[in-house]
């Protein structure tokens, strides 16, 4: 069972936008056991789209398209598909109702332009788009399936995981692939690879390991392929058992969730609250924490103390200490963590202060120097880090290391015997 | 003059790596006036690479390939090119010398594996790789040019900008393409399309418009192609002149920068500072603002008042008002904006309070209800929004609308006659 992706959009061919959709689709197809053989990116022109689609349908049973489904004149995917599959347009009452509801809640008037989104080809299945206005079109003809999805990442992702992948799984009798994702924090990739070397070399046939590093974290994925889901499950469980011993607390989740979600669960389980005092991370930690639904149960708030007057005036950091030790120092980080804890009345306070760059570095404190502190019922600790990325990289990685410090502290306070 | 890109690598087809190389190459080609018509991603298999390359050479005069040039077994681009173009391998003394120097500096011994990198096809031009071990191969035959580059981004980028683009410019008498990006805030795509309909329909031949929507914003791109850069520049300037009248202050930049960068420039130009009080956006506005280098000159800090006690205790919001009007109300938003301004001593305060979802909605205040307030020297104003996305969408779009409200206020205070 082979599949191809066709992404449509001039913005991809002039380098204005990086195609992140394809990697997401590729991963989901792999999980479903579908072999992706080609990704083709073409412009918004009718003849190039038609040519690319015709070629892909000759080679592959499944073609997933993204882009060109919007309400503007440069969106012509629908028209190309109708030329290819024949038939006319009908106004879908369901899509129109979805559209009206979506627009009215957003305070956007219905006009001829966006109303055209409710016109759908009569000979395809229409899949509803819960987070946007363009419906998803599913054509099934002569052993070939063509699916047209919006190019907006969130809309594509929602439709793909919620509707399209389940339908693909139903449609094709696939071999069995079971995966487990393991999320690890606080390791460099090369160090982790060395630590896991013997275990990886001894993995049974059909089981493979992939490293997917991101800011301050590594996502490990164990894939097992074979005939029987039951057998594979046992094989994976056995390997996971070994990993638990090798990696211990470095694993923050045995499933694919973010660090902030793991921390949220830990805070709920421990019935504790926390707050953050951010300097170099500028609000990113608060943003990550509050991206998790229900975070208001354990996250009280944050002070982004970008200016030193905010560090002293709001958080109560001693301005004499700021002057003598510098804003980027253990003392200031610790006073910030204690200050936010006092200010909000939270059980834990987490702070960051550092030099994200590109300016502001000195020989003693180069760009990338970051102090993180955690204050809690059992005291206040701080730690220095040295990162060497761009401004955005340093900010992102600082947030991850800070969150991991908080996680380890919550874990230690919960089970003192383990640290 | 048409070009295509072929990227090679299994990691791209299983979603492990996002293809960022293609966007970089695309941008450089566009700047050189080369029309990129297609990007094809295929696996490391000999027959798929050969097929993709043969097809591309039928359609296009220039094919740029990345990947599959390394020293390991799955790197077979060189072998595919030799099958296609004929001829044998020779050891290049220059490449061997480069290789030895490169390896010795990296402390890696020369072995049979990496020495094979010095073996190059005899009937191509070899372009030196100053930052890696795989040389770049340039084939020129029957009006077709095929260039094979390494897939490692730094090596590809160095070779492309330093050697390949200059050669392409020499080789082809190219048509000219000029683009201008216009960034618009506060418009829904369909409403903007309606507003620009007449203007777009009257665009001269050779000039086209593309819409690239993202959270709460639309990026417009005007492309003009023709013979003379000078003529095209005048044509674009004329159309931009019309757009200025149609869109007015909805345009936050006539170039491709983010809203937070436009606000930063405005704050610097006006010599004012601001701070933020965030509830539903949870720190995202602070993160966006501080992602801009130099933001410490105008951004003093933020309070993320997730808990109502932080709203009253830190920001001084009247808890009687919170109880009577609710935390998501005009009054609370305004008191938050005033409170953060007072607390940090900034010229402006920007606040958000709303229900991001998925929980917390009521019939009177459904999920997506957001109040934004701006407080400044000329007073405090607030505005209600209703969004209908997921939690993350509502947070992202709230941050964009809030930043835009601040921008319009800074603009109005700067030039009172314009509002």
Q: CATH homologous superfamily name of the largest domain in chain A? A: MoaB/Mog-like domain
CATH topology of the largest domain in chain A: Molybdenum Cofactor Biosythetic Enzyme, Chain A
Strand content of chain A: 25-35%
Helix content of chain A: 40-55%
Rg from Cα of chain A: 26 Å
Tell me what the CATH architecture of the largest domain in chain A is. 3-Layer(aba) Sandwich
From the helix content, strand content and strand pairing of chain A, which structural class follows?
alpha/beta
Helix count of chain A equals 15
For the secondary structure, the number of strands of chain A is 17
Question: Mind explaining what this structure looks like?
Answer:
The structure is a homodimer of 419-residue chains. Chain A has 419 residues and is an alpha/beta fold. Chain A folds into 3 domains: 2-171, MoaB/Mog-like domain (Molybdenum Cofactor Biosythetic Enzyme, Chain A); 176-253, Alpha-Beta Plaits (2-Layer Sandwich); 259-418, Alpha-Beta Complex (Maf protein), CATH 3.90.950.20. Chain A is built from 15 helices and 17 strands. Chain A has a 6-stranded mixed β-sheet, with helices on both faces. A 5-stranded mixed β-sheet of chain A has the order 14-13-15-16-17, with helices on both faces. In chain A, helix 11 links the parallel strand 13 (274-278) and strand 14. Chain A is globular, with a radius of gyration of 26 Å. Chains A and B meet through helix 1, helix 2, strand 2, helix 3 and helix 5 of A and helix 2, strand 2, helix 3, helix 8 and strand 10 of B. Strand 2 of chain A pairs antiparallel with strand 2 (35-42) of chain B.
